[in-house]
Amino acid sequence: MKIAMIGTGYVGLVSGVCFSDFGHEVICVDKDPRKIEMLTRGEVPIYEPGLDVLMAKNVAAGRLSFTQDLAAAVEGAEAVFIAVGTPTRRGDGHADLTYVMAAAEEIAAAMSGYTVVVTKSTVPVGTNSAVERTIRNARPDADFDVASNPEFLREGAAIDDFMRPDRVVVGVTSDRGRDIMGEVYRPLFLREFPVIYTDLETAEMIKYAANAFLATKITFINEIARLCEKVGADVKEVARGMGLDGRIGNKFLHAGPGYGGSCFPKDTQALARMGQDHAVPMQITETVIKVNDEIKRRMIDKIVDLCDGSVNGKVVVVLGVTFKPNTDDMRDAPSLTIVPALVGAGAKVRVVDPQGAREGTLLLPGVNWMDDAYKAAQKADCLVLLTEWNEFRALDLKRLAKKMASPRMADLRNIYNAKDAEKAGFEGYTSVGR
Ligand SMILES: NC(=O)c1ccc[n+]([C@@H]2O[C@H](COP(=O)([O-])OP(=O)(O)OC[C@H]3O[C@@H](n4cnc5c(N)ncnc54)[C@H](O)[C@@H]3O)[C@@H](O)[C@H]2O)c1
Fold first, then answer.
1. Is the separation of the CB atoms in 104 and 117 below 8 Å?
2. pLDDT, tens only, 226-248
């Protein structure tokens, strides 16, 4: 089957590589010449574990290629996926559909033969119908269907998520469209991963409802964490006690510095706007957004309190700035709130992150990037564990404490505990909800 993937970012590239690994012939398109040049040279523009090897394998097999030429990729493709960005629209919180609609117009101009135009980007309910209208207006003669196929992969585990999904959601309007989508996902269907066929609106809504629910779960435990601190309970044990209940489940119950990343912040906002547009306010989601913002800011107070009320002139080492481990993605990371606040308060901030520097250098001005936690700890006043990369999960606390001027740690991911930190020589230790 011939597939064109429009937009070769985190989702488009992973999807394109995995579809080619299914055996399909995939052409990935991006309008960013730098990305296409890198990909054509065999370099992966993002950090995603395992992607380089799988990409090289499928390029070598002749099933995967990259181009800036959308028209050439779309012509003759049976399925054309739209995987462009849908960031928050400036000023009002709506999802910005400029890229999706522009892609739809370009696709309309290039389509030949029966084509299914599939939106993989996360888009508000009604967008797939708008895509259909746009193409129909531009090309009344075209033989096509639209389909909604929201993506649920997690950065850092994207290939496994794509190859072994909890479910695949497909919104379609015709049997022909459904058959093509069935062909695209045949290898997963054969391995009995659940494929849900539904209408366009339901597919679109599933994605927002799922993301808003997960953001709510995280924010719920973060709020409980705050109460735990006041009443002397341990949120880690509370979460374990809750999570063992099969109705609740233990995922997304880790208290921390608030959610961030390329999806939850923008998708919760877009859902809230959708609710307002239809006079059905998403009150829970709106509260989640507000509470999450407060949680991020509360982390700054925690660090300042740990430093006896001021970070001015103090050396603060921040371990991890990407929004989660195993990605280089910095979009809406909690670090973008916390680190500038520390710099603004006069701290000398040193940052260590295995992959964060490429994007982070521009986003976090005024910090000193270092490549090793122990070197960064030299004569430092405070250590902030912000993103739990594996290499920060088993730090030699004694060695760190010895190097620091005044050993204190704000463990915002609850990796260590007060007793061990004290034993290792830390004078101050704080975490979340304990
Ligand atoms: N990143 C994730 O973890 C994730 C997970 C699930 C769903 N999503 C959704 O997937 C969509 C894409 O997200 P992403 O993180 O991959 O975005 P991204 O910003 O990494 O990639 C988007 C790419 O599309 C390209 N592009 C834009 N317009 C184009 C056009 N007309 N022609 C060709 N290329 C074009 C851009 O240059 C960019 O490289 C979003 O709607 C997002 O919400 C993302």
1. yes
2. 999 999 999 999 999 999 999 99
